[in-house]
Amino acid sequence: MLFTSIAAAVAVAVAVPAARALPQTEAQTEAQTETQAETVRCELPELRAELVEMQRLDQEARNGLIELVQSGADQRSAEFQTVIRKAVELDRKHAARLKAIIGSHGWPTKTLVAEDGAFAAWLIAQHADFDPAFQQRCLELMKPHVGTGEIDDRNWAMLTDRVLLAKGEKQRFGTQLEKTPDGSSHRMRPCENPETVDRRRAEVGLPPIAVYIASVNDSLGRGG
């Protein structure tokens, strides 16, 4: 499972009773498979390597939180709070670096940094909840590339929903979920015109919402 927020990582850690290798997102798996299948070609290979390393550190920090929670650590303890603080500091550091990258090169597309580098850039933006103006800026930079093959349109959709919800508006693609009141499953957070959400999801390459929710339930456990 790819963790896109500190809170999500902690929530999953509490819900999943035993430490185990959680599945990656479909987008991440495809990105890694494609880049491993052939020699990576991009205009900025050093920047690609930097972005991929930032993603590795990002997920390492979140997996560390999971391990700590599942070990039974008190979330109010100094140890736990230190891990949280370091993860948040890492998010801020990565966001600052991405801002600099954007200033120099524009949005990191597949041509510039290959599939996995573009994915890592999106992930850093997705984590910058502490800077909604920056997330909005990233969304604007990604939008011209939708449908061109230069970014993963699914990632753009996920960031769109993140930004909309942060502004107190309804999401558009149904990518952001929450637990049902009884904790037994997941459901969409508020979404505009939910009766046509599958049409919008299909336009960006996302599976039907029912399939998506079932996948989340299966990967995290019904109450995960």
- Given the C-alpha coordinates, what overall shape results? globular
Residue stretches low in confidence (pLDDT < 50, at least 5 long) are 11-27, 33-38
- Tell me the number of strands: 2
Structural category is mainly alpha
Rg estimate, integer Å: 17 Å
| Distance linking N and C termini | 12 Å
Helical stretch count? 9
Helix-residue proportion: 55-70%
In percent terms, what proportion of residues is strand? under 5%
- Secondary-structure element string: HHHHHHHEEHH
The oligomeric state of the chains shown is single chain
What is the average of the pLDDT values?
85
Describe the protein's architecture and organization.
It is built from nine helices and two strands, in the order αααααααββαα. A hairpin with a 6-residue loop joins β1 and β2. The radius of gyration is 17 Å and the shape is globular. About 10% of the residues have low confidence.
Topology record:
Layout: H1 6-15, H2 26-37, H3 45-70, H4 78-105, H5 110-126, H6 132-142, H7 153-166, E1 177-179, E2 186-188, H8 197-203, H9 209-220
Antiparallel strand pairs: 1-2
Helix pairs in contact: 1-3, 2-5, 3-4, 3-5, 5-7, 6-7
